[in-house]
Amino acid sequence: MANIQLVETSLRDGNQSLWAALGIDTAKTLGVAPIMNRVGFKAIDFTTSTHMAVAVRYKREDPWERIRLTAKAMPNTPLQFLSTGFRFISWETANPEFMALAFRTLVRHGIRRFALADPMNNADSNLACARMIKEAGGQYVVTALVFTVSPIHDDAHYVACARQLAASPHVDALYLKDPGGLLTPLRASTLIPAIKAVIGDKPLELHSHCTIGLGELVYMNAPEWGVSAVQCASGAASDGISNPPSGRVLANLREFGHQVDVDDQALAEVGRYFTRLAEAEGLPAGQPQAFDAGYFHHQLPGGMVGTMRRHIAEVRLSHLEPAVIEELGRVRKELGWPIVMTPFSQLLLAQAVINVTAAERYGTVPDEVIRYALGRFGKPNIPIAREVMDRIDSLPRTRELRQEPGMPSLAELRRRIGSLLSDEELLLRVTMPAEQVDAMKAAGPAPQTYDPDVVPVKKLIRYLCSRRDISHISAVKPGFRLEMTSRSTSLGATVRR
Question: What is the spatial distance between Cα 130 and Cα 141, in angstroms, rounded to a whole number?
């Protein structure tokens, strides 16, 4: 029997997996924050720099304000920021002083827990970030062992990474991060105990997805192998290609005799909120997924499969989907078995589609694949296949990209962009187009209230007000009367209780 904690992922990973990171804004976050604060979660998987960019680009909302307001609304529950190596918003590698500024600013606005998931499982990179975070005042650092299936990602690979990470005083816990939902119970039965054997007393968490129906099954055995926390989403933000659903995981863990100390009523309310939100906004709800062994070949996140199909359909090449899937596996092997997570999933897919549709394999190589080959995203796990590297080295574009300067110093950035800018605005302007930041600032403070139950009513009222052939509407129920009458060309409303 074990005491298991829950980390809630709906606002970040659930939103990203099922709703392309676009389903949540500041008002929707604040609408559920007080309820989440009552549950007793170990932490809330809250944001990444990518989600902060989405807030600016698509919502025209200040992501720093969102962090600050949510931290104030959830004083009992740590908010988590997920960082993928030395990067902030841009996929280009940032210099240490820029990352240190980002971490200090995140801490100042209320981020207390940091998850570090280097897409190469580069322990040195994770440890450098962990040290910076603790120096910036971060309270809790959990470093990831990013799981994938390949000839080089065996148990020994993860044990070596875990041993190095756990030895650091700046690392508070580790987590096995399975972004593709690839971890089977059989593999977990050897991998998780091997990791636990080398990390001592440091906690081990588990993060998986339901993409092919495995994540929830692994969660049920995880406590027996030494996992002390599992990461779940809630309501319509769970299941599908998202994380296992918190309600079902809770019930099943308890059925197996484990203790999970949460406020059941508040947890159920969180689930209902995300389900009502999805219904109100027309967002897809996650559904249980069937097992698909073919997924182990391409390992694309679920959202990327849809992207691939849309892209090849647009150029009337849908009949080439099997060839693209086959080519994905070949490209991944040639590029040194990168883990199929952002940005590598996008790079692999782009190169595979080009190789299948062009006259010559690697006849065209996207800039981001060249940057990967040049080590801009970290050192590949094993050397890139010689014939592929020779081809990349021969490209004129490769010579140009080799000469790209690295990120300037912080002092130089301030001089170029604005010496009087706040840290918050500087971090955004260095990594995002100026017009997007300008539009965000012009939009003003984001709305802070949201109730999914009133969204359909508001939509109906807006529709009725747009009609020019209606002069009077009356809605009556006990204790409530709504009268809408025509005033020249539009409807005006009067509410009586």
Answer: 6
For residue 476, the surrounding DSSP H or E stretch is strand 472-477
What three-state secondary structure class fits 142?
strand
Residue 367 CB: number of other CB atoms within 10 A?
Answer: 12
What token pair was written down for 305? 């499969």
CB 127 within 8 A of CB 170: yes
Successive 10-residue mean pLDDT values, the chain, 497 residues: 95 93 96 98 97 96 98 98 90 88 98 94 94 97 96 96 98 96 96 97 97 96 97 97 96 97 98 98 94 85 68 81 90 93 86 91 94 87 94 95 89 93 97 97 95 80 76 78 66 54
Residues 218/232, Cβ–Cβ less than 8 Å: no
Contact 116, 129 (CB under 8 A): yes
Look-up of token digits 């606005």: 109
Q: Are strands 229-232 and 204-207 parallel, antiparallel or unpaired?
A: parallel
**What is the pLDDT at residue 458?**
76
Give the residue extent of every domain in the chain.
5-281, 295-394, 410-443, 452-496
Question: What CATH topology corresponds to 5-281?
Answer: TIM Barrel (3.20.20)
Single pTM value for the model:
0.90
Measured distance CA(186)–CA(204) in Å, rounded: 18
Q: Alpha-carbon torsion 465, 468, 471, 473, what sign?
A: negative
DSSP secondary structure, 343-375, as one string: THHHHHHHHHHHHHHSSSTTSS--HHHHHHHTT
What is the residue whose two structure tokens read 């508001």? Answer: 458
Max Cα–Cα distance, the chain, nearest Å: 78
How is residue 300 written in tokens?
């694309």
Cβ neighbours, 10 Å, residue 199: 20
Within 8 A by CB and 6+ apart from 374, the residues are: 398, 401, 402
Instruction: Please give the DSSP secondary-structure letter assigned to residue 83.
Output: E
Distance CA 38, CA 264 (A): 10
Query: Cα 336 from chain centroid?
Result: 24
Radius of gyration of the chain measured on its C-alpha atoms: 24
Rounded CA-CA distance 129/363 in Å is 37
DSSP notation for 171-214: --EEEEE-TT----HHHHHHHHHHHHHHHTTS-EEEE---TTS-
Is CATH 1.10.472.90 what the domain over 295-394 is classified as, yes or no? yes
Give the position of tokens 């002083």. 97
pLDDT of residue 306: 63
Peptide bond into 343 cis (omega under 30): yes
Distance CA 348, CA 360 (A): 16
pLDDT of residue 497: 52
